Amino acid sequence: MQCFLRDAPERITTGSSASVKGLANAITTFLAGRNGNPKRLVWRAKGKEIRRKVQGARGEAISAPKTAASSA
Length: 72
Description:
This protein is an all-alpha fold. It has one domain (2-63). The chain has helices at 2-11, 20-36, 47-63, 68-71. The model has no long low-confidence stretch (mean pLDDT 77).
């Protein structure tokens, strides 16, 4: 998903389509091209590093002050 969101704006830009149908066709064409030449995902992050980041994010979320929007 991240690769799609990274690469799509190169081909599908604001104003590149005059209609929703045209936009849907552009997305379908883009995906067909990507699926025609798939690239294997290589996971580079270490498990311990991911766990450390998740635990840090949880700690920040718990200790963050509550705002009017988050308490509503």
